[in-house]
Structures are given as C-alpha cells and as structure tokens.
Amino acid sequence: MTQTVPHDAALSAMFETLRAQSRKDGMVSWQTRADRLSRLRSLVRDHRGTIGAAISADFGQRSRHETELLEINHVLDGIHHSLQHGQRWMRTQDRKRSYKYWPGRASILPQPLGAVGVIVPWNYPLDLSLGPANSALTAGNRVMIKLSELTPHFGALLAELAARYFAQDELCIVNGGVDTGRAFCALPFDHLLFTGSTAVGHQVMHAASDNLTPVTLELGGKSPAIIGPRAGPAGDFDKAVMRLVMGKTLNAGQTCIAPDYAFVPRGQAARFIASARRAVAAFYPSLATTSDYTSIISDRHFQRLQAMVDDAVGRGAQASPLSDAASDPARRRFAPLVLSNVAPGSRVLEEEIFGPVLPLLEYDDLEQVIDYINQRPRPLALYLFESDRKKVERVLTATVSGGVTVNDVFFHVGPDTLPFGGVGASGMGAYHGETGFRTFSHDKPVFRQPAFSLLSWVYPPYGRRAERLLRMPD
Ligand code: NAD
Q1: Exposed, middle or buried, 99 (CB in 10 Å: 0-12/13-18/19+)?
Q2: Residues 287 and 208 in one domain
Q3: What is the domain count for the chain?
Q4: Active site residue 172
Q5: What is the rounded distance in angstroms from the CA atom of residue 298 to the CA atom of residue 304?
Q6: C-alpha–C-alpha distance, residues 377 and 9, integer Å
C-alpha cells in the first residue's frame, strides 16, 4: 500500500468493505481473534528497529530507548495480556436473578461491535494506534486507523506493514491531515476512539453524533504534580524531584500524561530548581548532543513553546534553565527549564504545555492546592509526592483526575489490569486490558425462558393468583 491520502470516496469504499465483512462475522471465534493478535505482535516484533527509526525520523530525533520502553514494549505487553485473558473475557457470563424470574436463566453475551475507527496523535504513534487496535481486535472487531500528518515516516511504514500482515478489511491504515480526519469521523463507525487534543475532541464528538457513533475520547489537558509538605518516598525530596523531572523530559515533555505544572511548598522553589538541575545533569550529561533527548515534533510546536515561555517571562516570571545547553531551534531541541513567579493568566498556566517547560506554583497549605485543582478542568493525570499517608488519602479522595501515580509519574498507565482514560475535559471512556475489551464489545443481556415461567401466572384475566404473586416479597 502506498502512502496516499484517500479521497472521501476511496475512504468510504475502504470503510464499506470493512463494515460489510464485520456484518458477516457473527461472534468471531477465539482462534480468529488470537490469530489476529499474533499477527499484530509479529508486525511489531519483526520490525521494531524499523519502527523506532521511522518514529525518530518524524521527530528529527526520538530516543530509541524511549520508543522501546513506552511504545514497543507497552504494545507487546498489552497484546500478551489479551492473548492470556481474552478467551475468558469473551465467555458468556451467567448472572444471578431474583427468584421471581425462576426458573429462567440470565446471562451476558459480549459481542463484537463491528467496525471500529481509531484516530491517532503524533506523540506516541505506535502505542496510540496499535494499543486501541489490540483492544478492538480482542473484542472481535475490524479496525480502521487514521494516523497523524505529523508522523509521515511512521505512517507510510505502518500502512505498508498492516497491508502485509492483515487483509485490508481486517485492519487498515489511513494517512492524512485534518481533512482526512474530518472525512474519517463522518464515517458511521460502530465505535470511534479518538486520542488527541481537547479542542479536536469536541469536533470529533460533534461529527460522530450525526451517526450516533459512540466515542471514547482520550484527550489532554494540564496534569498537576504536587511536591507534598513531606515529599515522598520516605521524605526524599531529591528522589521526588528526579522522578518528576523524568516525567517532564521523557519524549521532551510531549506526553499527554506528563506533569504539566508543579506545586512546591512555599520557600522550596530554589531547592526544587537546584535539585532538578542535578537530575537533568544526571540524565543528560551532554544534552546538546545525546541521542537520549528527544526533539520537538515540528518548528511550529517549537516556536509555540518558545512563545509560551516569552509570554510568561514578559509578565514577570523567572526562567531557570535546567541544563547548561541552550535550546537549538535548527534541531528542535528544547532545553528544559522551570518558570517561577508565573503571573496568573500566563499561557503556561492556561494551555497544555506539551514540552519540557515546568511552571512552579508555591503553596502554603495542601488545601489551597486541592482548591486550585478542583476549580479547573479535570486533569488526565495527577502526581503526588508525599510520605504522609493521611495527606495522600486526602488528595486522592478530594480530587478527580483520569488517573494518579503516588510518588512517581506515569506508572498508573502501565499495568493492563488498570483502565486508562480521562474524565471531564480530559476525556471519556477508557481502554487497556479487560476495560478495552468491554469498550469495544456490546454486553448483550440474554434471558432464556424454559417451558415453565413463574411470572406467566400474572397473565390476564387478573385474579387472586396474580394478586398473590404481585405481593411476593422482593
Ligand atoms: P490533535 O487533536 O491535533 O490531532 C489528533 C488527530 O486528529 C490527528 O490524527 C489529526 O490529524 C486529527 N485531526 C485533526 N483535526 C481533526 C478534525 N477536525 N477532525 C478529525 N480529526 C482531526 O492532537 P495532536 O497534536 O496530534 O496530539 C497532541 C494532543 O493529544 C495533546 O493534547 C495530548 O495531550 C493529547 N494526547 C492524549 C493522549 C491520551 O491518551 N489521553 C495521548 C496522547 C496525546
């Protein structure tokens, strides 16, 4: 398959074939699902080097280890988990029912929805395309994936590989920009999973509503990190800062669940910055040249980050570089920095940053932090570094976010036994593991009635027997 942008008509034709096949599928045996998952696994395993190189070409430079850790391993782990548990997930489950329904039997039959659409952003193009595809295929669906225009090398490669490992009506790839995205969302999918910005999420949901297509929206937003009054683990301030900095510099901060901004106890900003500088020096001894540090995806994104920093500094914020290396616009390497004394209303406090820039907010009392977070849109992730268990419980129960990792970053997204998704402005619905299977299945309730049914005694003409039955205890 070549890397072409399909016309609306060609796109519709691809979709129609896929959907027509899905209507003939019925239940889809475990053998078929497992075979598709095995092929998905081979696609990734056989080409992990080429996949890493293509993603790196799209970024200009993307750490090979980060691609392995955060994309390739994560996808392979997810497929392994599906292969281990999928057959159990798809079984009919008997459900209890009240004695009034005796002797009938109630059960749930999980069925494939049919044709699933997946829209992918550029920041983790493998994980965010094949992760949802894993869930959708495990649930017995056929899948059409629209990749981002900002990952053309990866897009061309995945289209070619998908055509090699799958029939086009099983799993296929569409490459293209905003127009293709619009045409894609207008297709009457049985379910659409969109990962991307909150702004585009609105448009996707509007478009899907024309077809009553259910959506899962995996969006972004501003995820806070809190250095607690007794920063954990075991009150180790430097370890907490190091972990937080890791979350902000991995993929150069271009991660939906990256800590967007951080709270520190009042008077601790200078200590935080010194500690963060040591962390960056330890991670990237030669930040200007190391292949461990990832570039910003495009000139436009680089300039946007610089403009956000300039805006904050123009309003009186102090910028503290975390590295001696300067940013390099030609190679789109953005040197990490902390912003302190940031004025309210600055862009870095209003927009998702999506880069290695960390505004610091000082606080006197943890309750102020909780109020600040609760007055804003629900974040996708929240990170709390604290060793006092009561304070941890207070923050966990008083705030609502897509997920939380305590005393580290990102980890709540790893285990396939946990759902992954946002809440409110950071998204709706979830996937990963069994949750992903349920997202892409219809849990069909089935009632099997034998020849005798207790409630058939309540037929007209209503008499004393019906009266007695209607007064039976619950
Ligand atoms: P984006 O919203 O600009 O684009 C995402 C995808 O939507 C791309 O494939 C794009 O071509 C397509 N698209 C753009 N306009 C469209 C339209 N009108 N209709 C249909 N499709 C359209 O996002 P991005 O810049 O690629 O990614 C960054 C954003 O994604 C950040 O906000 C980040 O937080 C979020 N994100 C969220 C998650 C998550 O799991 N919650 C993961 C990664 C990224």
Answers
A1: exposed
A2: no
A3: 2
A4: no
A5: 10
A6: 39
The sign of the dihedral angle between the CA atoms of 321, 322, 324, 328 is: negative
Measured from the CB, is residue 149 less than 6 Å from ligand 1?
yes
**Sign of the CA dihedral running 158, 163, 164, 169:** positive
Please give the structure tokens belonging to residue 314.
């123009």
454: in domain: no
Task: State the CB neighbour count (10 A cutoff) for residue 237.
Answer: 18
Taking only the tens place, the pLDDT of each residue in 317-334 is: 999 999 999 999 999 999
Tokens of residue 78, six digits: 């997810």
193 CB under 6 A from ligand 1? no
In short, whether 403's Cβ falls inside 6 Å of ligand 1 is no
Could you say which DSSP state residue 431 is in? Answer: B
Q: How far is CA 347 from the centre of its chain?
A: 24
User: Which residue is catalytic, options 256, 352, 386, 434?
Assistant: 256
pLDDT of residue 458: 83
Q: What is the CA(371)–ligand 1 centre distance, in A?
A: 29
**Identity of residue 432:** H
Higher pLDDT among residues 73 and 1, named by residue: 73
Answer whether 421's CB lies under 8 Å from 430's CB.
yes
Which has the higher per-residue pLDDT, 230 or 155?
155
Residue 431 is assigned to a structural domain of this protein: yes
Cβ atoms within 10 Å, residue 299: 12
Residues 179 and 62 in one domain: yes
The confidence band for 159, taking pLDDT boundaries of 50, 70 and 90, is very high
Average predicted confidence (pLDDT) for the chain: 95
Q: Which two tokens stand for residue 121?
A: 């952003």
What the block records as the tokens of 226 is: 């809190």
| 352 vs 347: CA distance, rounded Å | 9
Considering the domain architecture, whether residues 42 and 140 belong to the same structural domain is answered as: yes
CA dist., res. 378 & res. 202, Å (int): 16
Mean pLDDT of 20-49: 97
Residue 302 has pLDDT above 50, yes or no: yes
Looking at residue 204, what is its pLDDT? Answer: 97
The percent of residues in the chain predicted with pLDDT above 90, rounded, is 91
283 and 233 fall within a common domain: yes
